[in-house]
């Protein structure tokens, strides 16, 4: 039976559990003896299933790392590597800074301590902060633009209505009706650009009930050719959120995916929990993550960095408002939508913080 190293006291345990860095301890045979919660999130497997596995089973393409661990065991000196690429659990590549050091244990034995800092995570936080700032600036710009557009629109519409009452000719009234209808259309477009203006009506909900509702709506719209798979973590806690807003936001994403694949392909709805996760400028202990994954052609490189901006679309018939509205709805829940796309695999991640008291 493999012994598991535990922290000496509650304070040490709380510190290890709250770290964003991955902390792992291996014995002299390179078998894992301890891993903190950040490490569990990295491997997406509980510590109970990881303890006892050899490093080669956990991380591939790690010959430089294994050599550093052996050298540190022999010399008892710490070794640090920067921007090391590792393949985790045979399918995910990560980029990390890693520090290897030794740890004395009872009986005179020495073990190896690994500290991994994910550089891709730091890049994601920076990207999210930029996205938050861009969305905020865009909203302020649109509010100012809406104010400047709505006033003259109202005047045009009112003048057209007055003129219509004075005209006896039906043919001439058709022209005033065009002015009124087009003013209404522009007013509606401005309102849609601004996004929802009502506050969320939050209550305790099960995110999987929301996703099942979305799945049913999309499958009703599409007769055949699209497969929507489920990959749910049924242990997720309930979420305090507005279900109608979440349905609208995630439905926009799923519909976009379906249209990008011309309603033929595979979409996966996946739910997980992320621990010690940063959204914008705030770090949350628990974050609910909903992934909408499709195997379509991917997002064009020319618009990939702008897809959450209003009026940006990759389809000739698209309005470019669906993702902008979805981002606005999720931000009203202090969350964020991220996107990662390449041909054959596009993933939109909806991140919703779970307050500490939940």
């Amino acid at each position: 039976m493999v012994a598991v190293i535990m922290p000496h006291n509650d304070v040490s345990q709380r510190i290890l559990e709250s770290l964003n860095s991955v902390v792992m301890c291996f014995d002299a045979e390179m078998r894992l003896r301890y891993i903190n919660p950040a490490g569990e999130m990295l491997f997406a497997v509980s510590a109970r299933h990881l303890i006892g596995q050899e490093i080669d089973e956990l991380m591939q393409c790690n010959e430089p790392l294994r050599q550093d661990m052996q050298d540190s065991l022999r010399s008892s000196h710490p070794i640090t590597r920067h921007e090391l690429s590792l393949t985790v659990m045979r399918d995910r590549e990560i980029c990390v800074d890693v520090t290897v050091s030794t740890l004395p244990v009872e009986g005179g034995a020495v073990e190896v301590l690994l500290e991994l800092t994910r550089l891709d995570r730091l890049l994601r936080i920076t990207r999210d902060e930029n996205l938050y700032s861009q969305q905020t600036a865009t909203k302020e710009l649109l509010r100012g633009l809406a104010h400047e557009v709505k006033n003259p629109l109202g005047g045009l519409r009112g003048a057209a209505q007055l003129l219509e009452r004075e005209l006896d000719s039906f043919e001439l009234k058709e022209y005033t009706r065009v002015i009124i209808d087009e003013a209404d259309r522009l007013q509606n477009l401005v309102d849609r650009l601004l996004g929802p203006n009502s506050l969320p009506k939050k209550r305790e909900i099960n995110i999987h009930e929301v996703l099942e509702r979305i799945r049913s709506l999309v499958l009703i719209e599409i007769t055949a050719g699209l497969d929507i798979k489920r990959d749910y973590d049924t242990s997720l806690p309930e979420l305090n959120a507005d279900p109608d807003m979440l349905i609208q936001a995630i439905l926009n994403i799923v519909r976009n995916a379906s249209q990008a694949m011309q309603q033929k392909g595979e979409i996966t709805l996946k739910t997980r929990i992320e621990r010690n996760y940063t959204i914008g400028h705030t770090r949350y202990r628990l974050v609910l993550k909903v992934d909408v994954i499709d195997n379509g052609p991917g997002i064009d490189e020319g618009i990939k960095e702008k897809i959450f901006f209003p009026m940006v679309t990759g389809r000739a018939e698209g309005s470019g408002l669906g993702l902008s509205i979805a981002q606005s709805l999720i931000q009203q829940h202090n969350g964020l939508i991220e996107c990662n796309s390449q041909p054959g695999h596009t993933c939109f991640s909806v991140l919703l913080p779970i307050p500490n008291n939940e």
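Residues 35 and 82 are 21 Å apart (CA to CA). The chain has three domains: 10-118, 124-194, 203-354.
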